């Protein structure tokens, strides 16, 4: 992938860009094998690759510059704002959306926020696209002061970009580089973006997490479904479940499934999908995953965990070791903490491992690991 911004040293986010893609994959696989060297792996499956460019479905843009000439991209601490609207990680048509949003900023009177001066209103633009064609746009604002002007200008924007089916404003009053605040103000009647992976309907709401590489994510979910179906289990927990992608893929009409996620927004999406699929034995709840699990006196046959980068931690590992479900399916975005957690589960053998290259040109990747009780 060629990137003029990288060549000009204006953006170095893709730190591995100068490495051939085959070398990137080889180094990631080697790192994963080193991390799991203390645990015999019965089967290493081939890595799932990504398109090298135009794979992202999400753009997170710092807004800087002036209301007449806004800049969408990044603001280095010691440099000039960098326009990232032509970033080759985004689909080409994202640039067309950004080109409409720039004059809209002036129409709505949304002065870009200046961190040093602590003035202005518009901090970030967050754009997400569904493979079904719709888009979600979020304006991250410092306060409510410009909401009326924003609402008044929206009809023009919606006429120019009818694919924007979900629009909202997030209020982030803290004068720090924090992406979003707790309050979300809906600006369209619909606040759920429809997605579909492998025939499973999914919903994305403004404050719910969703993967940024849809092709690889769809393969990850399908792989988990295949592995679970091979085990023929009838009961399962999906912990840290997000919008329910893993559990909804794995569930069958006969399976008793419980999905747990701290975000109420994500749980609302998961429940909607379960209803659409007609799953009657599925329950989703907005709770802390560790607190939910460790308060139970029994476990299902399979526990699927998809934790944040910190991993599942000592408490949950100790609980799973004690309760001993037949299988643990571990999806991780941080192989270091996954390896630490596996070391805390000495009664489990590593049945199979597969790397999913969700983030080309960086050191990051996802991994799916099946643990079987010895």
Automatic annotation (TrEMBL):
Enzyme Commission number(s): 2.1.1.189
Domain of life: Bacteria
Active-site residues annotated for this sequence: 333 (nucleophile), 333
Keyword Lipid biosynthesis among record annotations: no
InterPro entries assigned to the protein according to its UniProt record, in alphabetical order: 23SrRNA_MeTrfase_RlmC (IPR011825), MeTrfase_TrmA_AS (IPR030390), MeTrfase_TrmA_CS (IPR030391), SAM-dependent_MTases_sf (IPR029063), U5_MeTrfase_fam (IPR010280)
Protein keywords: 4Fe-4S, Iron, Iron-sulfur, Metal-binding, Methyltransferase, rRNA processing, S-adenosyl-L-methionine, Transferase
HAMAP family: 23SrRNA_methyltr_RlmC
Role noted for this protein: Catalyzes the formation of 5-methyl-uridine at position 747 (m5U747) in 23S rRNA.
Family the UniProt entry places it in: Belongs to the class I-like SAM-binding methyltransferase superfamily. RNA M5U methyltransferase family. RlmC subfamily.
Protein name listed in UniProt: 23S rRNA (uracil(747)-C(5))-methyltransferase RlmC
Organism this protein belongs to: Candidatus Pantoea multigeneris
Gene: rlmC
